Amino acid sequence: MEEVIKDLANADYHARPEIGKSGLDAVHKSMAHYYAPRKKATTAMETGIAFHTLVLETEKFEQQYVRSIECDRRTKDGKEKWAEFLEQNPDKTILKIDAWESLMRMKESMDAHPRISNYFESGQAETSIFWEMNATGCKARPDWMVNDGEFIIDLKTTADASPEAFAKSCANYRYHVQDAWYSKAVESVLGIKPVFVFVVVESTEPHSVAIYTLSLESKDEGWMVADKDFRKYVDYMAKSEEERFSGYSPDALEITLPRWAFEELMFY
Fold it and tell me: What pLDDT sits at residue 167?
């Protein structure tokens, strides 16, 4: 089963049963985390979603979001003004004025970058890709694809876009796994080994912008981790209901304190 859908709604993509990168993140902890309800989006996540829409799907941003207005809703006049505003913008996500202006400044920083516009001159946003490995359904949804998969552009928002900080973010949020998983999707379905590029924009002033690719060893590590999590998922699904255990481990495991917790530094 191989499928590429260009205009699939985000909710419909997440509702499909195939396993994606976010599923692998959960499986990495335990199968119980995989089956747990999806957490409510944090403010940072909501900012990232809004910015993705602004940059990659501008028309949709205009349809879905609106800048709030200045009014004192404690007063009669303010309440009337707010009610009129809501009536004029039904079903839209209302962004606070400072949040709206921050998004616009982030977009301006991107537009001012001498290289980034080249990535977004042509391409397709939010392409949903479905394929099979080990008779198991898999899925991926790259932010932006250029030349039908020659380039995958992943747009990230972060507090610190410096090389050192973003390298840590890659490890903490498993962006190297995302690189590997999305690249595998494009290679498996479209027959292209893509160049995976991170475009990173700071969510706070001065909204600096950076472009990164991962080193070969980082990419290899990303696939080793992704493959290990995927095989854990496949092995679990292959077991009978009676054999399945969804917690961290059925066995007692020996653990070691982190190095900073020892009064005398341990040398190995």
Answer: 97
